[in-house]
């Protein structure tokens, strides 16, 4: 995979038809899928400053098509980021959680439980 040659740490059996900007600042665990046209941005412009921060995706993570993951995000093992979600800078997604929306928020667990906030539409 080209991203590994550019410095991305990529685990076994992982697949990414998405875009990884700043490959040396991205770590992808085993059995992780990054969906079509999803984009991982390890950089941000903050005022007049250019900021870099790592993105870490754990093992068995699914990132849906067209999702955007910003700098400083950690996605725990077995978590799901829904298609089209925008995960804001510095967000920490715990293992087994399901996040989606714009901006992304916890929807429930990857096992199918829904968050009370998600169920109410809040």
Question: How would you characterize the overall build of this protein?
Answer:
This protein is mainly beta and 122 residues long. It has one domain: UDP N-Acetylglucosamine Acyltransferase, domain 1. The chain has 2 helices and 16 strands. It has a 5-stranded parallel β-sheet with strand order 1-3-8-11-14, with no helix packed on it. A 5-stranded mixed β-sheet has the order 4-9-12-15-16. It has a 4-stranded parallel β-sheet with strand order 2-5-10-13, with no helix packed on it. A hairpin with a 2-residue loop joins β6 (43-46) and β7 (49-52). The protein is globular and about 40 Å long.
Please report the total strand number as a whole number: 16
Kindly provide the radius of gyration, computed on alpha-carbon positions and rounded to a whole number of angstroms. Answer: 14 Å
Q: Helix content range of the residues, please?
A: under 10%
The number of distinct helices, counting runs of at least 4 residues, comes to 2
Reported by name, the CATH topology is UDP N-Acetylglucosamine Acyltransferase, domain 1
Number of domains: 1
Q: From N to C, what is the helix and strand string?
A: HEEEEEEEEEEEEEEEEH
Shape-level CATH architecture: 3 Solenoid
Largest sheet: 5 strands, parallel
| Widest beta sheet: strand line-up | 1-3-8-11-14
Mean pLDDT: 90
Q: Give the termini distance in whole angstroms.
A: 40 Å
CATH class categorisation: Mainly Beta
Uncertain stretches of 5 or more adjacent residues: none
CATH superfamily membership, which one? Hexapeptide repeat proteins
Relative strand content = 35-45%
Shape: globular
Task: Give the structural class.
Answer: mainly beta
